[in-house]
Amino acid sequence: MKKILSLFACLMMVVGLTACTNAEPADEKKTVNVGVSIYKFDDNFMTLYRQEIEKYFKSLNTDEVTYNVTVQDGKNDMAEQTNQIDNFIAQDYDVLIINLVQSTSAATIIDKCEAAETPCIFINREPSEEDMKKYEGMISYVGADARQSGKMQGELVAELDNKGDLSGDGILQYVMVVGDPENVDAKYRTQYSIEQYQEVSGNKVEKLDEQRGDWDQAKGQEIVANALTQYGDKIEAVFCNNDAMALGAAQAITAAGRTVGKDIYLVGVDALAEAVDLVSTDMMTGTVLNDHITQAHKAVDAAVSAVNGEKLSAYYWVDYVKVTPKNASQFK
Ligand code: GAL
After folding, report:
1. Could you report the per-residue pLDDT of 250-288, keeping only the tens digit for each?
2. I need a labelling partner for 299 at 20 to 30 A (CA). Which of 79, 94, 201, 252 fits?
3. Cβ atoms of 173 and 234 closer than 8 Å
Protein backbone atom coordinates (compact mmCIF):
# COMPACT_ATOMS: atom_id res chain seq x y z
CA MET A 1 0.00 0.00 0.00
CA LYS A 2 2.86 2.34 0.97
CA LYS A 3 4.45 1.66 -2.41
CA ILE A 4 1.24 2.49 -4.22
CA LEU A 5 0.87 5.70 -2.22
CA SER A 6 4.41 6.85 -2.91
CA LEU A 7 3.97 5.97 -6.59
CA PHE A 8 0.80 8.08 -6.58
CA ALA A 9 2.67 10.95 -4.85
CA CYS A 10 5.43 10.75 -7.45
CA LEU A 11 2.86 10.79 -10.24
CA MET A 12 1.23 13.89 -8.74
CA MET A 13 4.60 15.60 -8.52
CA VAL A 14 5.32 14.87 -12.18
CA VAL A 15 1.86 16.17 -13.18
CA GLY A 16 2.44 19.25 -11.04
CA LEU A 17 5.83 19.89 -12.56
CA THR A 18 4.53 19.46 -16.09
CA ALA A 19 1.70 21.86 -15.32
CA CYS A 20 4.27 24.32 -14.03
CA THR A 21 6.54 24.04 -17.07
CA ASN A 22 3.55 24.30 -19.37
CA ALA A 23 2.40 27.49 -17.67
CA GLU A 24 5.80 29.11 -17.81
CA PRO A 25 6.02 30.44 -21.39
CA ALA A 26 2.74 32.37 -21.02
CA ASP A 27 3.93 33.93 -17.75
CA GLU A 28 7.30 34.81 -19.26
CA LYS A 29 5.99 37.11 -22.00
CA LYS A 30 7.06 40.54 -20.94
CA THR A 31 5.29 43.83 -21.66
CA VAL A 32 7.46 46.93 -21.70
CA ASN A 33 5.55 50.18 -21.31
CA VAL A 34 7.17 53.07 -23.18
CA GLY A 35 5.99 56.66 -22.74
CA VAL A 36 6.79 59.10 -25.55
CA SER A 37 6.00 62.81 -25.41
CA ILE A 38 6.58 65.01 -28.48
CA TYR A 39 6.83 68.80 -28.06
CA LYS A 40 3.94 69.20 -30.49
CA PHE A 41 2.36 66.91 -33.08
CA ASP A 42 1.90 69.79 -35.52
CA ASP A 43 5.56 69.80 -36.69
CA ASN A 44 6.45 68.22 -40.05
CA PHE A 45 9.83 66.82 -39.04
CA MET A 46 8.81 65.56 -35.59
CA THR A 47 5.79 63.83 -37.16
CA LEU A 48 8.08 61.69 -39.33
CA TYR A 49 10.32 61.11 -36.31
CA ARG A 50 7.54 59.90 -33.98
CA GLN A 51 6.05 57.67 -36.69
CA GLU A 52 9.45 56.01 -37.10
CA ILE A 53 9.73 55.48 -33.32
CA GLU A 54 6.40 53.62 -33.32
CA LYS A 55 7.26 51.63 -36.44
CA TYR A 56 10.64 50.56 -35.13
CA PHE A 57 9.28 49.53 -31.71
CA LYS A 58 6.67 47.39 -33.52
CA SER A 59 9.42 45.64 -35.44
CA LEU A 60 11.07 44.69 -32.13
CA ASN A 61 8.04 42.84 -30.74
CA THR A 62 8.72 39.10 -30.30
CA ASP A 63 7.15 36.07 -28.61
CA GLU A 64 8.98 37.08 -25.44
CA VAL A 65 8.41 40.84 -25.35
CA THR A 66 5.80 43.36 -26.41
CA TYR A 67 6.58 47.07 -26.49
CA ASN A 68 3.48 48.94 -25.52
CA VAL A 69 4.15 52.45 -26.82
CA THR A 70 2.05 55.48 -25.84
CA VAL A 71 2.82 58.67 -27.78
CA GLN A 72 1.44 61.96 -26.49
CA ASP A 73 1.19 65.49 -27.90
CA GLY A 74 2.90 68.09 -25.68
CA LYS A 75 0.91 70.77 -27.59
CA ASN A 76 3.89 73.13 -27.23
CA ASP A 77 2.91 73.60 -23.59
CA MET A 78 5.44 72.63 -20.91
CA ALA A 79 2.79 72.35 -18.16
CA GLU A 80 0.82 69.91 -20.33
CA GLN A 81 3.96 67.90 -21.09
CA THR A 82 5.01 67.76 -17.41
CA ASN A 83 1.56 66.43 -16.62
CA GLN A 84 1.95 63.70 -19.24
CA ILE A 85 5.33 62.72 -17.81
CA ASP A 86 3.91 62.68 -14.25
CA ASN A 87 1.20 60.31 -15.48
CA PHE A 88 3.69 58.00 -17.20
CA ILE A 89 5.69 57.85 -13.98
CA ALA A 90 2.60 57.33 -11.78
CA GLN A 91 1.59 54.41 -14.01
CA ASP A 92 5.05 52.92 -13.59
CA TYR A 93 6.14 53.11 -17.24
CA ASP A 94 9.43 51.30 -17.87
CA VAL A 95 11.16 53.99 -19.95
CA LEU A 96 10.45 57.46 -21.36
CA ILE A 97 11.42 59.12 -24.66
CA ILE A 98 11.00 62.88 -24.37
CA ASN A 99 11.13 65.67 -26.97
CA LEU A 100 11.03 68.59 -24.56
CA VAL A 101 8.78 71.60 -25.07
CA GLN A 102 11.26 73.68 -23.07
CA SER A 103 14.87 72.53 -23.01
CA THR A 104 15.38 74.37 -19.72
CA SER A 105 12.87 72.06 -18.01
CA ALA A 106 15.18 69.06 -18.45
CA ALA A 107 16.51 69.23 -14.87
CA THR A 108 13.01 69.02 -13.37
CA ILE A 109 12.12 66.07 -15.57
CA ILE A 110 15.40 64.27 -14.81
CA ASP A 111 14.79 64.69 -11.05
CA LYS A 112 11.33 63.15 -11.41
CA CYS A 113 12.76 60.22 -13.39
CA GLU A 114 15.51 59.69 -10.85
CA ALA A 115 13.05 59.65 -7.94
CA ALA A 116 11.01 57.01 -9.78
CA GLU A 117 14.08 55.14 -11.08
CA THR A 118 12.80 55.51 -14.64
CA PRO A 119 15.33 55.81 -17.47
CA CYS A 120 14.74 58.67 -19.91
CA ILE A 121 15.94 59.32 -23.46
CA PHE A 122 15.79 62.95 -24.63
CA ILE A 123 15.48 63.56 -28.35
CA ASN A 124 15.70 66.55 -30.72
CA ARG A 125 15.92 69.31 -28.09
CA GLU A 126 19.19 69.06 -26.28
CA PRO A 127 19.30 69.64 -22.50
CA SER A 128 22.26 71.63 -21.16
CA GLU A 129 25.56 69.81 -20.62
CA GLU A 130 25.18 70.36 -16.90
CA ASP A 131 21.73 68.71 -16.85
CA MET A 132 23.08 65.77 -18.82
CA LYS A 133 25.50 65.04 -15.96
CA LYS A 134 22.57 64.21 -13.67
CA TYR A 135 21.23 60.68 -13.15
CA GLU A 136 24.24 59.25 -14.99
CA GLY A 137 23.83 56.08 -17.02
CA MET A 138 20.04 56.34 -16.87
CA ILE A 139 19.53 59.34 -19.17
CA SER A 140 20.70 60.00 -22.69
CA TYR A 141 20.39 62.56 -25.49
CA VAL A 142 19.99 61.40 -29.09
CA GLY A 143 20.44 64.10 -31.70
CA ALA A 144 22.44 65.71 -34.45
CA ASP A 145 24.96 68.53 -34.06
CA ALA A 146 23.19 71.56 -35.51
CA ARG A 147 26.51 73.35 -36.08
CA GLN A 148 27.17 70.79 -38.80
CA SER A 149 23.83 71.47 -40.54
CA GLY A 150 24.45 75.22 -40.42
CA LYS A 151 27.89 74.82 -41.97
CA MET A 152 26.45 72.65 -44.72
CA GLN A 153 23.83 75.29 -45.54
CA GLY A 154 26.60 77.88 -45.88
CA GLU A 155 28.52 75.55 -48.19
CA LEU A 156 25.46 74.88 -50.35
CA VAL A 157 25.47 78.58 -51.31
CA ALA A 158 29.26 79.18 -51.21
CA GLU A 159 29.92 76.24 -53.56
CA LEU A 160 27.69 77.62 -56.33
CA ASP A 161 29.63 78.87 -59.39
CA ASN A 162 28.82 82.50 -58.53
CA LYS A 163 28.88 81.80 -54.75
CA GLY A 164 25.31 83.05 -54.67
CA ASP A 165 26.56 86.60 -55.28
CA LEU A 166 24.23 87.50 -58.15
CA SER A 167 25.18 91.18 -58.25
CA GLY A 168 28.90 90.39 -58.19
CA ASP A 169 29.68 92.98 -55.50
CA GLY A 170 31.49 90.46 -53.26
CA ILE A 171 28.72 90.70 -50.65
CA LEU A 172 25.90 88.18 -50.20
CA GLN A 173 22.67 89.98 -49.39
CA TYR A 174 20.50 87.53 -47.47
CA VAL A 175 17.38 86.91 -45.41
CA MET A 176 17.43 84.51 -42.44
CA VAL A 177 14.27 82.67 -41.34
CA VAL A 178 14.85 81.37 -37.80
CA GLY A 179 13.16 78.43 -36.03
CA ASP A 180 11.90 78.33 -32.45
CA PRO A 181 14.82 79.22 -30.16
CA GLU A 182 13.69 76.52 -27.68
CA ASN A 183 15.75 74.25 -29.88
CA VAL A 184 19.43 75.20 -30.02
CA ASP A 185 19.29 74.08 -33.68
CA ALA A 186 17.81 77.49 -34.47
CA LYS A 187 20.72 79.40 -32.94
CA TYR A 188 23.45 77.22 -34.40
CA ARG A 189 22.03 77.04 -37.93
CA THR A 190 21.59 80.83 -37.99
CA GLN A 191 25.15 81.43 -36.83
CA TYR A 192 27.14 78.68 -38.56
CA SER A 193 25.48 78.94 -42.00
CA ILE A 194 26.69 82.52 -42.36
CA GLU A 195 30.11 81.99 -40.77
CA GLN A 196 30.81 79.01 -43.03
CA TYR A 197 29.52 80.87 -46.09
CA GLN A 198 32.04 83.64 -45.47
CA GLU A 199 34.87 81.22 -44.78
CA VAL A 200 34.32 79.08 -47.88
CA SER A 201 33.39 81.86 -50.35
CA GLY A 202 35.70 84.60 -49.09
CA ASN A 203 32.76 86.98 -49.64
CA LYS A 204 31.26 89.38 -47.15
CA VAL A 205 27.60 89.25 -46.11
CA GLU A 206 24.81 91.74 -45.53
CA LYS A 207 21.82 90.64 -43.49
CA LEU A 208 18.72 92.33 -44.89
CA ASP A 209 16.24 90.68 -42.55
CA GLU A 210 16.06 88.06 -39.80
CA GLN A 211 12.71 86.86 -38.43
CA ARG A 212 11.51 84.07 -36.21
CA GLY A 213 9.28 81.56 -38.05
CA ASP A 214 8.99 78.85 -35.35
CA TRP A 215 9.72 75.99 -37.81
CA ASP A 216 6.35 76.72 -39.42
CA GLN A 217 5.58 76.76 -43.16
CA ALA A 218 2.90 79.48 -43.07
CA LYS A 219 5.18 81.74 -41.02
CA GLY A 220 8.07 81.10 -43.42
CA GLN A 221 5.89 82.11 -46.33
CA GLU A 222 4.73 85.30 -44.63
CA ILE A 223 8.22 86.37 -43.56
CA VAL A 224 9.75 85.83 -47.00
CA ALA A 225 6.78 87.44 -48.80
CA ASN A 226 7.23 90.55 -46.64
CA ALA A 227 11.01 90.59 -47.15
CA LEU A 228 10.57 90.30 -50.92
CA THR A 229 8.15 93.21 -50.90
CA GLN A 230 10.54 95.30 -48.84
CA TYR A 231 13.90 94.41 -50.41
CA GLY A 232 12.92 93.07 -53.85
CA ASP A 233 15.84 92.17 -56.13
CA LYS A 234 18.38 93.04 -53.47
CA ILE A 235 17.79 89.63 -51.85
CA GLU A 236 20.25 87.08 -53.23
CA ALA A 237 19.74 84.22 -50.78
CA VAL A 238 17.18 83.00 -48.28
CA PHE A 239 18.43 80.76 -45.47
CA CYS A 240 15.71 78.88 -43.58
CA ASN A 241 16.51 76.98 -40.38
CA ASN A 242 14.29 74.11 -41.62
CA ASP A 243 12.50 72.81 -44.71
CA ALA A 244 8.96 73.54 -43.56
CA MET A 245 9.82 77.26 -43.53
CA ALA A 246 11.76 76.85 -46.81
CA LEU A 247 8.66 75.35 -48.44
CA GLY A 248 6.77 78.48 -47.38
CA ALA A 249 9.63 80.62 -48.68
CA ALA A 250 9.53 78.78 -52.04
CA GLN A 251 5.81 79.63 -52.35
CA ALA A 252 6.51 83.30 -51.59
CA ILE A 253 9.40 83.38 -54.08
CA THR A 254 7.22 81.93 -56.87
CA ALA A 255 4.38 84.30 -55.99
CA ALA A 256 6.78 87.25 -56.27
CA GLY A 257 7.78 86.13 -59.79
CA ARG A 258 11.33 85.19 -58.77
CA THR A 259 13.09 81.98 -59.84
CA VAL A 260 15.35 79.95 -57.57
CA GLY A 261 18.70 79.22 -59.22
CA LYS A 262 18.32 82.20 -61.58
CA ASP A 263 17.67 85.30 -59.53
CA ILE A 264 17.62 84.01 -55.93
CA TYR A 265 18.89 81.06 -53.85
CA LEU A 266 17.06 79.11 -51.15
CA VAL A 267 18.29 76.54 -48.60
CA GLY A 268 16.64 74.57 -45.78
CA VAL A 269 17.34 71.67 -43.40
CA ASP A 270 15.58 68.30 -42.79
CA ALA A 271 15.25 66.85 -46.33
CA LEU A 272 11.47 66.53 -46.10
CA ALA A 273 10.18 64.69 -49.20
CA GLU A 274 8.57 67.88 -50.58
CA ALA A 275 11.83 69.80 -50.17
CA VAL A 276 13.91 67.05 -51.81
CA ASP A 277 11.45 67.20 -54.75
CA LEU A 278 12.03 70.95 -55.02
CA VAL A 279 15.82 70.47 -54.87
CA SER A 280 15.73 67.85 -57.63
CA THR A 281 13.71 70.18 -59.88
CA ASP A 282 15.98 73.16 -59.08
CA MET A 283 13.26 74.99 -57.19
CA MET A 284 15.38 74.92 -54.03
CA THR A 285 19.17 75.31 -54.04
CA GLY A 286 19.68 72.57 -51.47
CA THR A 287 18.79 71.13 -48.11
CA VAL A 288 20.48 69.06 -45.41
CA LEU A 289 19.30 65.61 -44.35
CA ASN A 290 18.27 65.57 -40.70
CA ASP A 291 18.21 61.79 -40.41
CA HIS A 292 15.05 61.09 -38.39
CA ILE A 293 15.21 57.38 -39.16
CA THR A 294 18.65 56.80 -37.63
CA GLN A 295 17.82 59.17 -34.75
CA ALA A 296 14.56 57.30 -34.03
CA HIS A 297 16.35 53.94 -34.12
CA LYS A 298 19.13 55.12 -31.81
CA ALA A 299 16.59 56.51 -29.35
CA VAL A 300 14.62 53.26 -29.34
CA ASP A 301 17.79 51.13 -29.06
CA ALA A 302 18.88 53.24 -26.08
CA ALA A 303 15.45 52.82 -24.46
CA VAL A 304 15.61 49.05 -24.93
CA SER A 305 19.14 48.89 -23.47
CA ALA A 306 18.01 50.88 -20.46
CA VAL A 307 15.05 48.54 -19.88
CA ASN A 308 17.48 45.62 -20.06
CA GLY A 309 19.48 47.19 -17.26
CA GLU A 310 22.38 48.47 -19.36
CA LYS A 311 24.10 51.75 -18.52
CA LEU A 312 23.43 54.49 -21.10
CA SER A 313 25.98 56.82 -22.69
CA ALA A 314 25.08 60.46 -22.17
CA TYR A 315 25.08 61.20 -25.93
CA TYR A 316 24.31 59.41 -29.20
CA TRP A 317 25.02 61.53 -32.30
CA VAL A 318 23.81 61.22 -35.89
CA ASP A 319 25.45 62.98 -38.87
CA TYR A 320 23.75 65.43 -41.23
CA VAL A 321 24.17 65.02 -45.02
CA LYS A 322 24.15 67.71 -47.74
CA VAL A 323 21.42 67.36 -50.38
CA THR A 324 22.01 69.04 -53.77
CA PRO A 325 20.30 68.72 -57.18
CA LYS A 326 23.04 66.20 -58.08
CA ASN A 327 22.45 63.69 -55.27
CA ALA A 328 18.79 64.48 -54.42
CA SER A 329 17.50 61.27 -56.02
CA GLN A 330 19.25 59.25 -53.28
CA PHE A 331 17.11 60.91 -50.62
CA LYS A 332 13.67 60.20 -52.11
C1 GAL B 1 14.70 70.56 -35.77
C2 GAL B 1 14.08 70.37 -37.13
C3 GAL B 1 12.87 71.27 -37.25
C4 GAL B 1 11.92 71.08 -36.08
C5 GAL B 1 12.66 71.20 -34.77
C6 GAL B 1 11.75 70.91 -33.58
O7 GAL B 1 15.79 69.69 -35.63
O8 GAL B 1 15.01 70.69 -38.13
O9 GAL B 1 12.20 71.03 -38.47
O10 GAL B 1 11.33 69.82 -36.18
O11 GAL B 1 13.77 70.31 -34.76
O12 GAL B 1 12.45 71.02 -32.37
Report:
1. 999 999 999 999 999 999 999 999 999 999 999 999 999
2. 79
3. yes
